[in-house]
Amino acid sequence: MINRQTLLSDLQSVLRKLGADLLERTASDEVPEVGEWLRAEYQSAKDAERTAQTFKEWLDDFITQVAAAWVLSCVFTRFLEDNQLVDPPRIAGPGKRLEQARDEHTLFFQDAERAKLTDREYLLDIFAGLAKLPAGKDVFGPHNPMNALPNWLGPDAAGELLLFFQKIDSDSGELVHNFTDHTWDTRFLGDLNQDLSEAARKTYALLQTPEFVEEFILDRTLDPALDEFGLTPVREGEAPAEPQSVDGSAGASPSRFKMIDPACGSGHFLLGAFPRILNRWQKREPGAKVRDLVQRALNSIHGVDVNPYAIAIARFRLWLAALKACGVTKLKDAPAFELHLACGDSQWHVRSQGSIGFTVRAEIASSCRTSDWTSSSHRRGRSVHF
After folding, report:
1. CA-CA distance, 88 to 136, in Å (whole number)?
2. Termini Cα distance of the chain
3. Which of 49, 160, 186, 345 is the most buried (most CB within 10 A)?
4. Hey, where are the domains in the chain?
5. Tens of pLDDT along 60-119?
6. What is the pLDDT at residue 193?
7. Hey, how many other C-beta atoms are within 10 angstroms of the C-beta on 246?
8. What residues form DSSP beta bridges with 303?
9. CA dihedral defined by 367, 368, 373, 378, rounded to 10 degrees?
10. What is the C-alpha separation between 370 and 378, in angstroms, rounded?
11. Spatial separation of the C-alpha atoms in residues 143 and 122, rounded to whole Å
12. pLDDT digit string (tens) for 113-127?
């Protein structure tokens, strides 16, 4: 089981070590391309008026994002491994699964072509494998800030990160951190989002909404809206904005009902809205495929946050909730659900064709690499409306 307080305290220490390594390698002669890339990214952000920060301020923010991305990617992977959503385990796992993971590590480096690689490449290979799965792209793919500059983290720091997640308690002989949870409760990730980095907590004013407050608000906002507007079908002759089913086959018209949390953080309100909307679909079409109804519910849910790793957590949590609703227990069997979450600044709002839309724009330096839009689109001031 997850010991939230111990995990948070230990990961805060790991984050500081990774941040120190990233900072040192920024000016290291060993990897001159890192400093050149960062300077170019900062200048690009300045030229596009996406930041008013000094280079040091910009760099400190970016380092926090990338260090957190490495840590959270390992947390996500361990959660999947410990709950046997993926096999074989490659980082660690309770019982015999730790030995299996160590065997996988040994096998990886036995390949002659990998003899000169390091634990950094080993972790990146794990994440790349998960990103290739239909359900893994949103979490481990291009959205992940870690992928902006994969060789920035030093090999030794990556090795320490791997060993941290394999650490054994000397008294019990068990893993110090066990992520097994048969209920797949991911609220602990909200704790990490709020408190993993003190600097990020201040920058993004991170504060979790208590569960009872979340329920109270949804009871008085989302439920009445569903009662009043219902799961309004697409009008006749109107092209649907999303696929009608997960496999692309024809089905009943999807809903035009949409909700958005413009500062969704780690996704508490999105997670609270999902079962409510899905329940409405199940009552309306009890004979429909569950996976199709799950996607329709996801199509009604939208979230934005300026914090890249808050969005990473929200994606992971909503994604797991969708898998659980479908009864999927193995990631390889998971459908390619589409999630409507974006990293950006929703405080920029504009009028479009007489209605209010959210303009998703990133203020943080890495935004052009981690959001859903290309850097050129940001430089042109492109607005994306939900």
Report:
1. 16
2. 38
3. 186
4. 4-197, 211-379
5. 989 988 998 899 899 999 999 999 999 999 999 999 999 999 999 999 999 888 989 999
6. 63
7. 24
8. 261, 341
9. 100
10. 12
11. 20
12. 898 999 999 999 999
Q: Distance between alpha carbon 123 and the CA centroid of its chain, in Å? A: 17
| Dihedral sign from CA coordinates of 76, 154, 342, 5 | positive
Provide Rg for the chain, Cα atoms: 21
Contact assessment for residue 331 and residue 138, using Cβ atoms and an 8 Å cutoff: no
Q: Give the integer Cα–Cα distance in Å for 382 and 184.
A: 38
189/318 Cα distance (integer angstroms):
12
Q: Answer yes or no: are the C-beta atoms of 348 and 359 closer than 8 Å.
A: yes
CB 114 within 8 A of CB 314: no
Q: What is the pLDDT of residue 353?
A: 40
- Per-residue burial over 151-168, b = 16 or more CB atoms within 10 Å of its CB, e = otherwise: ebbbeebbeebbebbbee
> H/E/C letters for each residue in the chain?
CCCHHHHHHHHHHHHHHHHHHHHHHHCCCCCHHHHHHHHHHHHHHHHCCCCCCCHHHHHHHHHHHHHHHHHHHHHHHHHHHHCCCCCCCCCCCCCHHHHHHHHHHHHHHHCHHHCCCCHHHHHHHHHHHHHHCCCCHHHHCCCCHHHHCCCCCCHHHHHHHHHHCCCECCCCCCECCCCCCCCCCCCHHHHHHHHCCHHHHHHCCCCCCCHHHHHHHHHHCHHHHHHHHCCCECCCCCCCCCCCCCCCCCCCCCECCCEEECCCCCCHHHHHHHHHHHHHHHHHCCCCCHHHHHHHHHHCEEEEECCHHHHHHHHHHHHHHHHHHHCCCCHHHCCCCCCEEEECECCCEEEECCEEEECCECCCCCHHHHCCCCHHHHHCCCCCCC
What is the pLDDT at residue 194?
67
Neighbour-count burial of 190, counting CB atoms closer than 10 A to its CB (0-12 exposed, 13-18 middle, 19+ buried): buried
In one-letter notation, the amino acid at residue 153 is L
Contact at 8 Å (CB) between 332 and 133?
yes
Percent of the chain with pLDDT over 90: 53
Cα 170 from chain centroid (whole Å):
33
Q: Position of tokens 């004013």?
A: 205
| 306 within 8 A of 364, measured Cβ to Cβ | yes
Q: Say how far apart CA 31 and CA 8 lie, in whole Å.
A: 31
Cis check for the bond before 88: say yes or no (omega within 30 of 0).
Answer: yes
Query: pTM (2 decimals)?
Result: 0.81
The confidence score (pLDDT) of residue 234 equals 56
